[in-house]
Batch of 4 targets.
Target 1
Amino acid sequence: MSLPPVIAIDGPTASGKGTVASLVAQKLGFHYLDSGALYRLVALASEQEGIDTQNASELGILVPKLMISFKNSQIFLNGADVTEAIRTESIGLRASAVAVHPEVRLALVDLQRSFRQFPGLVADGRDMASIIFPDAILKVFLTATAAARAERRYKQLIAKGISAKLEDLLQDLQARDARDSNRGTAPLVIAEGAKVLETSDLSIDQAVKTVLDWYQSAIA
Ligand code: CDP
């Protein structure tokens, strides 16, 4: 029997891929993998354990020991609800620092692939199409200009009651883009065969509809 279909949605920080991917999953009744959350969990756990972000070998040992679970929209780390704690900008930056290490990435491969279950999976991240699900039936590279992304991130944080400065966010996301795109292992790239979706001038509904239309064509 063939494997469940995967829609891989990759893109830079704050491109809206999380929102679009989870809505596409909802519309299709598919499972959803937020792979960035896993790197954020490693970032949080390493901070709690006092492990330096450059210490690749200790990070690689830490990852398999983590007890990670997703229940509805909540995320648990070693039994504690960390849904909100992993969403801060500082954890996002730390996540991109731990994510450069092949030891960390390798330790997360099987966990990510275990999300591939019937009737299908929508997975979002940086290397879903290139490394984790190279046989995805649809590969989308979702992006927007840095200015549009900074503004979205700003609105997201303010809506959550977290204070933020637009200029700092723009700088942070440019630093994160550079690190994610230039790292040696699994850099953020437009995978071969991926369709680029530029969302600076699209509403969420328009972006979701485009992905759903592409999926219908892909399976036709
Ligand atoms: O929400 P945002 O797009 O800013 O980030 P995220 O998707 O939660 O991912 C946080 C960080 O984890 C990214 O900056 C990447 O460095 C890393 N990441 C990765 O390396 N590979 C993935 N598949 C997903 C995230």
Target 2
Amino acid sequence: MSRKAANIISAQVIMKPDAVLGLATGGTPVGTYAQLVEWYRKGDIDFSEVTTVNLDEYRGLAKEHRQSYWYFMHTHLFNHVNICPERIFMPDGSNPDKIKVCKEYDRIIKNVGGIDLQLLGIGTDGHIGFNEPGGAFELGTHCVDLTESTIEANARFFDCREEVPRQAYTMGIRTIMQARKVLMIASGEKKKKIIKEAFFGAVTPAVPASILQMHPDFTLIGDAGALAEIDL
Ligand code: F6R
């Protein structure tokens, strides 16, 4: 799964060296980033003209915090490739001014010309970015209250559950749907139910990822566990 996803990302960068990549954090893309780093070291991929915009960031965490998505992205990808620091964008989690941060992030995405390829994971409740079930499909970047299930799922990365921030800034579904290509990766049996529901069930805000059925260029790459309930 990781290698196939990395293949699609590197093909995008080869076809368009100044591509705008929308990136995700979480456990699922770690192997994809490791593969990209390996190919970069071999000289097979060049990030010097690439721009990145990440999906989301916790509200209330400084960039330097070890659980910030800024820190995650630098640890797993940015510190190891020749990406230009001025072309790395993420919502500013350290700024509590929700309106300002969200407006600024939408402006940044517009200014870079929109997203060529957006990489996504999926939550077991169907969330993409931090767009939780029940949210509106038409939102741009906004601030969300994390659901109990997301706080629970993310607690594994913190010392204790109480440390998990309760809010995050996230690209909205509208922003994600405007990406020219969307690539979702999913791994493990714990995702199999939601993968079936999201892509073989109704399109509904109750399952945010289901809207991707309407995207004109959507690819899902899953491992055997995540695809276990799909009749291929
Ligand atoms: C991360 C993100 C989230 C994750 C999702 C799955 O930037 O936006 O939507 O993609 O929570 O997380 P993992 O990969 O840890 O299962």
Target 3
Amino acid sequence: MTLHRAAELLAGARHGLALTGAGISAESGIPTFRGEGGLWTKYDPVKVSSIETFLADPAAYWMVSRERGRVALAARPNPGHVALAALEAAGHIVAVVTQNTDGLHQESGSSRVLELHGSGRTVECLDCGRREPRSAVQERLDTEMPPRCPHCGGTVLKPTVVLFGEPMPAAPMQEAFALAAEADVMLVVGSSLVVYPAADVPFVALRSGARMIVINAEPTPFDRLAEVVIHGRSGEVLPEIARLIDA
Ligand code: APR
Ligand code: ZN
């Protein structure tokens, strides 16, 4: 039974590693990018989420980000996040590598979280470098579009997330690939695994002999490489696996 096999692999893991994507936050109400109802089914990602188009027209970016930010700020961790934090606390995984920028892993108690695509919880003024919480900027978006820096008046404020065409943050990347190289169990949750270099993390783990578990609502390109594939909702599957481990 795949759930039992996943529980067995994680229970015996000494260097378990998790990689998460937007799917783990879907049950917190944050739309995914691809798949049913995904953000990129409504907008062209390069048009609304690349550094070139952002710098050319920050207001266009903020018009899309305003709604997504409101939803993300209102979102709370779901049982999938909580189960991952419990797996880390019990030592079955050593860290969560995430493509998400919503901060819900940290909020649910995961302590070692590597944010490959940055964090949407902070906004930086590209003119003076001043940073402020996204929640403060969110409040101004109905009257200030694009938002203005309260410190220098600059109008190019950017969430500290990685846009298409931007380099990935070096430190989390290095740490994620180092952990993948020594992982014995690679748990991938809620990602379509089509965006690189994040999708290289499970490749590195597999090359180092890790056994892979994929939990996703729909098939991924990595399913054929995984020892366990569970097509389901992470908010149901992860707590069930955590329960079986404790059973
Ligand atoms: N439980 C498990 N999986 C789910 C759930 C759920 N409740 N809901 C949706 N999914 C799956 C979808 O089937 C989809 O395959 O989660 C996956 C989410 O895939 P994407 O939307 O592509 O998200 P992600 O893989 O994180 O995208 C990577 O692309 O646009 C960039 O920077 C963005 O970080 C993002 C990156
Ligand atoms: Zn400024």
Target 4
Amino acid sequence: MAYKWESNIRKVVPYVPGEQPKDKNIIKLNTNENPYPPSKKVSEMVENADFDILKKYPDATAGELVEKLAEFHGLDKSQVFVGVGSDDVLGMSFMTFFNSDKKVIFPDITYSFYPVWCDLLKIPYETIPLKEDFTIDYEEYLGECGGVVIANPNAPTGILLDKEKIIKIIEANPEVIVIVDEAYIDFAPEGSSCLDLIDRYDNLLVVRTYSKSRSLAGIRIGYAMGNPALIKYLNDVKYSYNSYTMNVPSIKIGSAVIDDDEYFKGTISKVVKTREWFTEELGKLGFFVLPSSTNFVFASHKDKAAKDIFQEGKNRGIYIRYFNQPRIDNFLRITIGTDEEMKKLVEFLTDYLK
Ligand code: PMP
């Protein structure tokens, strides 16, 4: 039934997040979470928490967290913006930085939230096809446009784009903002991040998250780093929309865990080791696997349809991600879990594909 008011409201086709099943026995490899627990500093923090602080509003600037992040990354606090997961940070960034009649550009296969924000905010955009091998053709990003968004490493392909090529994109676009979404950068080889470029390029914004490498998808913290003028414009938009986005527990926990770098480095190296082992196993089972610099792999089987593997995995309590989307509808995105979880997946695949 159509309501009389329907032509006067904003309608959008929303982003669809991966399933979050309730059953604890499910092996959950569908939303790129970290299989290892967060830093012990979280439980210490909660045990010693003074709940009286919850009666007050949080610090709207989330100053404690901003300062900790700035210190951790060797930046000034004027170069850091925090939000409720990188989704919030990216959404705010699209709203702030993409306000041109020219089209914002990003790959045809990338994080599927980007076109949703563009539609919601009425930002013109164009998707640029990835090359046949699923890499980004950086030369396609050198012309006039309304802004650029690059997930690096890209998702769901897992492929890392060379920093030198990103530099060329940034230098070719001085009049617009280039957002580099580094949600998975901690799983990539050292030196791949664009963070060290923010002092050199005032049009570069680097976005990070606590959700993957820091095992804290549930806390919802993301942040952006860039030139102080960019951060100021972001804050102006944020304070014009919702000032108190960051809640007190998130600010406290986010600040407490940031220094526990040794623990994070340990879990990251475990995930990377498992990823390399699992990639080899997939190869033996007849999968073609794209080279991953993330905590997931993107793979296609030579005979069996991805959709069928996805469905049978689900029937057997193993959740992986399938995108029913042109070009990638025969691929599966598989998050790297613990060794034990990945062994169970290999057992299932060996049995199912025989
Ligand atoms: N960017 C990319 C490329 C992602 O895959 C995700 C995870 N869905 C995000 C951003 C958002 O992550 P979060 O909001 O949990 O920080």
